[in-house]
Amino acid sequence: MVKPLAFKGEKKVKKRKVAPTDLDAPAEKKTREFANDVEEDDSWVTAESQGDINGPIVIVLPSTAPTCIACDANGNVFSSVLENIVDKNPTTAEPHDVRQVWIANRIAGTNSIGFKGHHQRYLSCNDTGSFSAQSEAMSPEQTFICIPSPDTPGTFNIQTARDTFIAMADDGKSIRGDAESVSFNTTVRIRMQARFKPKLKAVKELKAKEKISRKELEDAVGRKLDDNEVRKLKKARVQGDYHEAILDIRVKGKHDKYS
Questions:
Q1: How far apart, in Å, are the Cα atoms of 20 and each of 25, 28, 29, 213, 238?
Q2: What is the pLDDT of residues 55-70, one digit of tens each?
Q3: Dihedral pair phi/psi, residue 6, rounded to 5°
Q4: What is the pTM of this model?
Q5: Rounded alpha-carbon distances, angstroms, from residue 66 to 63, 104, 182
Q6: CA nearest 160: which of 201, 114, 118, 194?
Q7: Pair type for strands 102-106 and 112-116
Q8: Is 253 helix (H, G, I), strand (E, B) or coil?
Q9: Which stretches does DSSP call E strand in 92-250?
Q10: 216-227 confidence digits (pLDDT tens)
Q11: Is the pLDDT assigned to residue 26 strictly greater than 70?
C-alpha cells in the first residue's frame, strides 16, 4: 500500500503508537520498532537496477537545469523544474510537487512497468512519440521497460512498447518518445522512496534481527547463557528459527538441571 507523499518542509503527523504489552519479548519489541522505521522511511534514493523500481518515483531528465517528467490533472505531460536538489546534482533530487511523482507498477512475469500519475491515469506514448497521461488502464502504449545504462551506473534508458526511447528534445524542454537509439538525451535517473528499495529494506530488516543484547536473550530464555548459546540464538534470529532455538536451549537447560 502506498502512503501519502511527504515533501520537504511539511510537518509530519505523528502516528499513535500502540503501547507494548508485557507479553512482548524485548527482542520482538526492537524488531517491531525497526520495521516501523522501514515502513515510515520517506527519504529518496537512486534506483540502481530494474528490480529496484517500485512505488513512488521521479524520472529525472538529462537537462541542463534539472527537470523531471510531470503531468497535470488534465493529463498533459511536460518537463518540470526540480527545486529540491543539491548543487544541481540529479542524484540528490526529490519532488516538491505531487505532479512530479509517478507510481511505478510492475507487470507480473515481465520487465514492463506502468507509470501512474497523481490523478490516477497512466503515462502513455503514442505512435508519433507524443506523451499524455489520460488512460485509466494499461495497454501496450502505457508500458515501458527501464533498461540500465551500461556506461553510467544508476541511470536508465526507458524503452516504449514500439522499441523507441524516452528522450529530452534538443530544445532542452520538450519530452519525446521516438528516439531510435540510446544517447545522452535518453539517459535518465530514477529517484525512488527508500522504503521500496529491496536492498535497503533487506539491510534494515537484517539489522533489526541482529540487534539484540545478551541480557535480552537471557530474559527470553529465563536463565544465564554461555557464549556459545548467545551466538546460536543471534544466528537463529538472522536465519528465522529464533523461537525454535530458544525452546531447544530451554529444554537443554532443564535436562542439565536434573542430570
A1: 9, 10, 7, 19, 23
A2: 999 999 999 889 999 9
A3: -120, 140
A4: 0.66
A5: 6, 21, 20
A6: 114
A7: antiparallel
A8: helix
A9: 102-106, 112-116, 122-125, 131-135, 144-148, 156-159, 165-168, 175-179, 187-193
A10: 888 888 888 998
A11: no
